[in-house]
Amino acid sequence: MAAPSTPQQRLVLTVAILSAFVSFLDATVINVALPAISRDLGGELSAQQWVVDAYLLTLGAVILLAGSLSDVFGRKKVLLVGLVGFGVTSLLCAFAPTIEFLIVSRGLQGVAGALLVPSSLALILATFSGPPQARAIGTWTAFTSVANIAGPILGGVLVDQLSWRLVFGINVLPIVVTVVLLARLDSDAHHAPGARVDVLGAVLGVVGLGLPVFALIEQVNFGWGSPVVFVPLVVGVVALVLFVVHERRAPQPMLPLSLFRVRNFSVGNVSTFLIYGALSLGFFSVAVFLQQVAGYSATEAGFAMIPTSILLIGLSSLFGRLSGRLGPRLFMTVGPLLAGGGFFLMLRFDDTADYLTQVLPAVVVFGLGMAITVAPLTSAILGAIEPARSGIASAVNNAVSRVAGLISVALASVVAGSVVLDLAGFHRVVLVTAVFFVAGALVSFAGIRNPAPASQAAVS
Q1: pTM of the prediction?
Q2: Nearest-5° Cα angle at 226, 221 to 227
């Protein structure tokens, strides 16, 4: 990808990448640290789920609201608040004395993380235009994708060689660097006249996501018939319905439902929900199983997925270019099918999970599938929306992927059927993960439409 042409553009892109990178990294770096956290602070599978989902819950619920805050108060200001908040909450997580304190701190960290993603994208959209903007967004997407995959590797090394607490402590240095660079950016432009925050939509969204997730995680401990589970589930579902009704009527909605009238955008986000839900559920279960059942160290569990990183980094741009020439439909069908095939291969795992004969073949097939999928999926969704609305379109797609991860991890104990992930439970989880990937492929095949030949030529 061509480099930005001016020093200010290079600075903007660097700040945008660093800001989003720490947010996405913390969504996955935690997975390999979960067994160590449980040994130190206590807690069964449901506590491990909450350590992951407390972050994903607030991140997914607030990320759209953060777009409104950026419009009202300015991208640079919101980004600064997010960076400082992320640094402070990272330290709270690093020094957490109890599992409950860690879960609450992770929720606060998710709020700060949500302020980073849309504001970083908004900086790019305000600074770049035309083909350079597409290249800048592509570079931003590539680095955030690498953050998702590199997280378990970095986390594993830190857990084994130092402490799980360093998984959070490492955020501080890049945040300090980003704050220094942010101070050198041009001042924010004045916000749009009449812009305001959709407070009611934000509240309904948080309640509508949070209470059903609470019910899904805690049903293993209390049972579906318990008021502790049943009442939050009902209230949460009602809040979600009210959220949709409110967003249809709000003059400045947090979630513009009109975007979903565009076929590739709506179908692409359904595929995103299924594919990224499968990705989060699969990574969560593999990281826990390899350590708690197969006896891998945290470092070994992290490096077990490194072929996926190599394939993503090496092949994503190739399949992005091919998608530009041939259209995204083929790649959005074949890629998830291969990724699902990788998880079907994990049904061969036994209690030892031999790396060369069991883990590596599954990881390679999965990684090839994701390399085929990621760039065409992003281009199909954002390419379907006019440039003027690409920022909110990207925020919506990011929110969909985070909410998918939130719900799928919450389902882990339901699918596993126990409070501890044993071999039988792991096989059930990877089977469901594979089915999600296949469903994403079928949705893409049935619903995605390739651009007209002239449009494809322009993209390539």
Answers
A1: 0.73
A2: 125
SS3 190: coil
Q: Which two three-digit tokens encode residue 315? A: 């092949």
pLDDT tens-place string over residues 139-189: 776 677 667 667 777 777 777 778 888 888 877 888 888 888 888 777 665
Question: Over the stretch 314-362, which tens digit does the pLDDT of each residue have?
Answer: 777 778 778 778 888 899 999 999 999 999 999 999 888 888 999 999 9
All residues at 6 or more sequence positions from 394 whose CB lies less than 8 Å from its CB, including other chains: 118, 121, 137, 382
Greatest distance between any 2 Cα atoms in the chain = 62
- By CB atoms closer than 10 A (0-12, 13-18, 19+), residue 456 is middle
Tell which residue, 403, 440, 392, 67, has the closest CA to residue 240.
Answer: 403
DSSP symbol at 197: -
CA distances from 277 to 360, 398, 409, 412 (A): 22, 12, 8, 11
- The C-alpha atoms of residue 190 and residue 193 are separated, in whole angstroms, by 9
Classified as helix, coil or strand, 411 is: coil
